[in-house]
């Protein structure tokens, strides 16, 4: 049983007299391990803890929580024992070992200030006790400074930032915000016992779980599949009121009952306190201000950045060391090793290498040169832009999840159309992008320090070009998970990746001879804006000259005609709008709103105007795009009376299709009910082309007027099914098709994540006899999907048929294209790209 600290041999009550060699602030895993090493070496020390018990962070874990001991390949050096197990057991073991090891602990000793210099620090507590120490080790973590909810919170709404005992909550509707390890574990604990009758929902801003351990993610998905809780992906909180919560989702705003919100959205370092440690102050205009260059420096001005540390954990203030979560290493085993090592360093051990040294040595073994691990880490960090803001400690953890390779000149890094979602960074040398598949000599260089592969990272698409090493090069390949974690935990890296991806999107979209150096001012003022479904980025009649680039999602353009909104066109990701007011002046001529939850890049009109003044070719391109839109507006105005009924119908049909998910599709199957005779040839052809399992349900789905949207894959621009595929079995093909390969393990995550119900889990039936055998001899079940009875009767005895995910792959690799379209005798089935179909301009061509 876990016991709180009590006054005894571990704690002194009187004020400290004399001087300690080491004062350790915080008794979490890192601080406790440091104190244990000091005790083992006979070094005078004191461990300062603000509460009445050891390791407050672990103590505040929810009751019965299973604590993991990851990473498994890392050796534990600490004098304190640690292995995976229940929170209560771990705390009991630590308390007993601390007592046996003669660790000197002072409880109720919350530190409010640290002054002095190396060899002569004075630590003052909130009770005005003073402790003198030669060195100070800060192991205070970040849990006392949680990230707060940013949405409005109404009076009487219950929002808490910690969960002590999940068993205390009965028959409540509880929403957990955040899908890191803490949030997932809280949600699982609240939903574990069905007799508690809790309705638990966990909210994730994205479609992926970038910062959680794999075991936790799998447990969460299993609980979701079992119906014990609900996972809301791509969702943010709009408002919290008493008894109710409102979300912004990919499909618009949603409200649901909520008795309690538990926010576990991470935390930030207690920056003000740490920066002021051993700082000097002066009066500036009557206010106390810290003297520049004194105190502990942080890596950047961002709220979630960490202190600048040396490889021995020393800060920019000599004699003050930082370990644990405050150093950017949140895993318990890492923290405990740091506690052990920092005392060894303070005690003069200059030969000690970190516990992860052998693992990293193996990472760098095949690279040219004779650098050591620390030298390689610093080489990579200083040479690669997105890694510059990382500390040496963060670099070590990052490289445990990444690979670094040497490529000879001319070696292929990856081929065009190859699957892949990793990010590459160039530490030495450069690469060439083959932009013309038919002429490999047409290339674009990417220089040392930059990145490539960001398209696969952001969209999941196959590689867009073949890339070769232009010279002998050293490249770091960052897995998708590591890249997402990097962006989540290092703001400067996220900003660098975002800037590079925006720059390349603009260069590809605008062309016109633009180069990177032309876009500096545009990128400096660019802003990424998240737009909920149905929300406008441009409203007809308003003033403004900014341009909006659709980064992800899609937009629809509407114009008021006769007092009613008329659907003009659909704009997929990669399009831009807003140029008409920029070039021609005047107010906005149409409304542009999100078809689904989207992201846009807002480009300042003045910055774009300055580039166009220097680049006439860009100005001419924008004018051409503007002219086509002006022609469309003129057509609508001219036809608004004589053609109003047709325009209204087309507008209604287009809005219906967007509501059915066409807004995020890249290829969609539509059926004209006026032509369909219900023969089911489309379904039969689909089954016969795919091992006897149809990927299409013709009768299912919604219909408006004569247009039917059957249950069939939309091949979304950002596929939801890809988000949580453990074996990474879902890919996008060269023609945009989203397909599932043979590595599928049948976990069902894709089926649960698909909002359109187009994925099924089924076992492949036995191979059928050929069509002629059925036609002439009556063998087999005939065309189409065989019935269950035939499949069971013809299955191999004793051989279980494992289920796998089944979905449309657009008949990739089959001559003639999609079988459903080819088999339709009346031409009722068509496959279309939304941007080609959803435009009122089709009426002008007589296609309405």
Automatic annotation (TrEMBL):
UniProt keywords, alphabetically: 4Fe-4S, Electron transport, Iron, Iron-sulfur, Metal-binding, Transport
SMART domains assigned to the protein according to its UniProt record, in alphabetical order: cNMP
UniProt keyword Methyltransferase present: no
Keyword Transport: yes
Domain Cyclic nucleotide-binding stretches: 386-486, 510-629
PROSITE patterns cross-referenced by the UniProt entry: 4FE4S_FER_1, 4FE4S_FER_2, CNMP_BINDING_1, CNMP_BINDING_2, CNMP_BINDING_3
Domain 4Fe-4S ferredoxin-type residues, every copy: 667-699, 736-764, 802-835
Protein name in the entry: Cyclic nucleotide-binding domain-containing protein
């Amino acid at each position: 049983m876990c016991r709180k600290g009590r006054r005894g041999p571990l704690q002194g009550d009187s004020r400290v007299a004399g001087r300690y060699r080491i004062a350790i602030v915080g008794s979490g895993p890192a601080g406790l391990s440091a104190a244990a090493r000091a005790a083992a070496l006979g070094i005078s020390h004191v461990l300062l803890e603000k509460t009445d018990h050891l390791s407050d962070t672990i103590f505040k874990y929810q009751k019965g929580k299973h604590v993991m001991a990851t990473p498994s390949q890392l050796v534990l050096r600490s004098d304190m024992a640690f292995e995976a197990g229940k929170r209560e057991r771990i705390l009991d073991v630590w308390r007993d070992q601390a007592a046996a090891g003669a660790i000197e602990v002072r409880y109720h000793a919350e530190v409010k200030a640290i002054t002095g210099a190396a060899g002569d620090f004075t630590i003052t507590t909130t009770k005005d006790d003073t402790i003198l120490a030669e060195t100070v080790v800060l192991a205070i973590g970040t849990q006392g400074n949680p990230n707060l909810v940013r949405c409005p919170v109404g009076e009487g709404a219950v929002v808490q930032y910690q969960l002590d005992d999940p068993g205390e909550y009965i028959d409540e509707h509880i929403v957990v915000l955040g899908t890191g390890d803490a949030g997932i574990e809280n949600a699982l604990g609240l939903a574990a016992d069905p007799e508690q009758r809790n309705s638990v929902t966990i909210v994730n801003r994205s479609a992926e779980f970038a910062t959680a351990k794999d075991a936790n993610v799998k447990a969460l998905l299993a609980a979701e599949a079992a119906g014990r809780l609900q996972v809301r992906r791509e969702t943010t909180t709009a408002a919290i009121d008493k008894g109710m919560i409102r979300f912004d989702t990919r499909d618009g705003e949603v409200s649901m009952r909520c008795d309690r919100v538990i926010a576990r959205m991470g935390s930030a370092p207690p920056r003000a306190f740490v920066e002021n440690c051993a700082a000097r102050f002066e009066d500036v205009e009557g206010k106390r201000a810290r003297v520049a260059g004194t105190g502990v420096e942080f890596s950047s001005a961002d709220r979630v950045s960490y202190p600048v540390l040396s490889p021995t954990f020393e800060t920019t203030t000599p004699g003050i060391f930082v370990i644990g979560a405050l150093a950017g290493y949140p895993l318990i085993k890492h923290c405990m090793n740091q506690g052990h090592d920092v005392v060894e360093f303070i005690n003069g051990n200059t030969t000690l290498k970190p516990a992860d040294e052998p693992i990293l040595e193996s990472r760098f073994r095949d690279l040219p040169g004779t650098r050591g691990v620390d030298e390689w880490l610093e080489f990579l960090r200083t040479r690669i832009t997105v890694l510059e803001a990382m500390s040496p400690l963060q670099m070590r953890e990052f490289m445990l999840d990444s690979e670094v390779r040497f490529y000879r000149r001319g070696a292929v890094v990856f081929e065009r159309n190859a699957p892949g979602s990793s990010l590459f960074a160039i530490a030495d040398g450069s690469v060439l992008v083959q932009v013309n598949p038919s002429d490999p000599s047409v290339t674009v260089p990417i220089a040392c320090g930059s990145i490539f592969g960001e398209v696969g990272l952001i969209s999941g698409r196959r590689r867009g070009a073949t890339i070769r090493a232009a010279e002998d090069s050293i490249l770091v390949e960052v897995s998708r998970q590591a890249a997402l974690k990097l962006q989540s935990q290092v703001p400067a890296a996220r900003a660098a990746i975002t800037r590079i991806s925006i720059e390349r999107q603009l260069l590809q979209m605008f062309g016109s001879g633009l180069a990177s150096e032309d876009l500096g001012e545009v990128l400096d003022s660019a802003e990424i804006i998240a737009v909920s479904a149905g929300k406008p980025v441009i409203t007809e009649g308003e003033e403004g000259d900014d341009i909006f680039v659709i980064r992800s999602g899609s937009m629809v353009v509407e114009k008021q005609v006769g007092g009613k909104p008329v659907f003009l066109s659909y704009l997929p990701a990669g399009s831009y709008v807003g140029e008409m007011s920029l070039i021609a002046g005047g107010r906005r001529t149409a409304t542009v709103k999100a078809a689904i939850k989207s992201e846009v890049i807002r480009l300042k009109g003045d910055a774009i105007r300055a580039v166009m003044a220097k680049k006439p070719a860009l100005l001419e391109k924008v004018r051409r795009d503007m002219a086509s839109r002006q022609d469309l507006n003129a057509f609508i105005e001219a036809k608004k009376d004589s053609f109003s009924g047709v325009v209204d119908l087309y507008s209604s049909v287009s809005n219906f299709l967007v509501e059915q998910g066409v807004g995020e599709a890249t290829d969609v199957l539509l059926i004209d009910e006026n032509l369909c005779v219900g023969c089911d040839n489309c379904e039969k052809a689909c089954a016969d082309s795919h091992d006897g399992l149809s990927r299409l349900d013709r009768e299912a789905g919604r219909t408006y007027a004569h247009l039917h949207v059957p249950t069939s894959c939309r091949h979304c621009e950002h596929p939801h099914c890809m988000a949580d595929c453990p074996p990474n079995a879902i890919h996008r093909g060269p023609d945009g098709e989203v397909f599932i390969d043979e590595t599928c393990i049948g976990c069902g995550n894709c089926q649960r994540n698909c909002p359109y119900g187009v994925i099924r889990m089924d076992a492949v039936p036995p191979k059928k006899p050929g069509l002629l055998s059925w036609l002439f001899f009556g063998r087999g079940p005939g065309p189409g999907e065989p019935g269950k009875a035939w499949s069971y009767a013809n299955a191999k005895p004793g051989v279980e048929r494992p289920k796998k995910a089944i979905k449309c792959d657009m008949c990739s690799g089959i001559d003639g294209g999609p079988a459903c379209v080819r088999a339709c005798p009346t031409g009722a089935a068509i496959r279309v790209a939304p941007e080609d179909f959803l435009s009122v301009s089709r009426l002008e061509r007589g296609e309405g």
